[in-house]
């Protein structure tokens, strides 16, 4: 039974209607979604910038097929001083443009995988807490609060220090500190749908709890979770930048945060080494936040007439 079913045959004959779920009252057709998203000009601009970052990451291997960490020229060549190095070289003579391109690939990979990890954990914990209730709800929420009171940056640095500075470790650490807000949001959404008429109807016809949760409640609760997940990607990029800036990033990959960290000692003489990756981080995070705002406007039925 779908949440979009609004009337039963008997109720239809009697002239009574059953309250439909939000998914039924707010159709999310692709054209309708794009139209609502396009009303937010900032979100459109953010999507364009994010698309450029994705294209840069996808074409990094074609634009710069060699190892971006190798030395290719003299150190500290300023941007636009040489046509071979449009963004200049760092203190070791590595091409900053190649580092930015390959760093975009690593940054997006960490952000997306960490967000997927946080979303999976958060949705599972929040759904289990809301559906089970009682002591299970209390226990899971206390665990969530425990993770929230631990300083996230300290937690990430501790995990990376113990398990080693590898991209897999950084991604796992960021995912482990990012799930509590998603869990609390999912729990709130599930509690709001748990006693709705369409869920009660599913129980009445004997549907299993797993099928009700996965097939009926979760699709209706996903829109705000998707918005939150897009913001988690932005947060993951910042966490990775902080870890790399402090020298705990993976030494075998190009990273924007690592480039900023390596250039901080030369900020007075060659400030561009810090500025170029810093601007890249700012644009990526800003574009993701703008895209999150646009998704909220497009997926939130309360804002459709705004």
From TrEMBL:
GO terms for biological process: transmembrane transport. Keywords: Cell membrane, Membrane, Transmembrane, Transmembrane helix, Transport. One of its GO terms (cellular component) is plasma membrane. It is found in: Cell membrane. It comes from the Bacteria. Residues 1-27 are annotated as: Disordered. Residues 104-292 form the ABC transmembrane type-1 domain. Pfam families: BPD_transp_1, OppC_N. The chain crosses the membrane at residues 43-64, 108-134, 146-167, 225-249, 270-291. It is a multi-pass membrane protein. InterPro entries: BP-dependent_transpt_permease, MetI-like, MetI-like_sf, OppC_N. PANTHER family: D,D-DIPEPTIDE TRANSPORT SYSTEM PERMEASE PROTEIN DDPC-RELATED, OLIGOPEPTIDE TRANSPORT SYSTEM PERMEASE PROTEIN APPC. Belongs to the binding-protein-dependent transport system permease family. This is Oligopeptide transport system permease protein OppC. The lineage of its organism: Bacteria, Pseudomonadati, Pseudomonadota, Betaproteobacteria, Burkholderiales. The gene is oppC.
């Amino acid at each position: 039974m779908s949440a979009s079913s609004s009337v039963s045959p008997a109720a239809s004959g009697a002239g009574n209607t059953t309250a439909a779920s939000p998914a039924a009252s707010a159709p999310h057709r692709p054209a309708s979604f794009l139209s609502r998203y396009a009303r937010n000009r900032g979100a459109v601009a953010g999507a364009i910038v994010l698309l450029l970052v994705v294209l840069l990451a996808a074409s990094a291997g074609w634009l710069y097929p060699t190892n971006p960490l190798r030395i290719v020229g003299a150190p500290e060549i300023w941007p636009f001083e040489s046509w071979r190095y449009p963004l200049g070289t760092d203190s070791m003579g590595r091409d900053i443009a190649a580092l930015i391109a390959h760093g975009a690939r690593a940054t997006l990979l960490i952000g997306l995988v960490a967000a997927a990890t946080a979303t999976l954990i958060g949705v599972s914990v929040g759904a289990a807490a809301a559906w089970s209730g009682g002591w299970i709800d209390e226990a899971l929420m206390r665990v969530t609060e425990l993770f929230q009171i631990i300083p996230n940056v300290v937690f990430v640095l501790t995990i990376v220090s113990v398990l080693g500075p590898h991209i897999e470790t950084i991604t796992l650490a960021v995912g482990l500190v990012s799930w509590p807000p998603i869990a609390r949001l999912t729990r709130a959404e599930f509690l709001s749908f748990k006693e709705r008429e369409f869920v009660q109807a599913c129980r009445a016809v004997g549907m299993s709890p797993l099928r009700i949760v996965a097939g009926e409640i979760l699709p209706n609760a996903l829109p705000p979770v998707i918005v939150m997940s897009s913001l988690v990607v932005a947060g993951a990029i910042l966490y990775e930048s902080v870890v790399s800036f402090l020298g705990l990033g993976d030494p075998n990959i190009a990273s924007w945060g690592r480039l900023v960290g390596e250039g901080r000692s030369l900020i007075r003489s060659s400030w561009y080494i810090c500025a170029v990756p810093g601007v890249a981080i700012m644009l990526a995070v800003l574009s993701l936040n703008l895209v999150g705002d646009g998704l909220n406007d497009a997926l939130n039925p309360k804002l459709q007439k705004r």
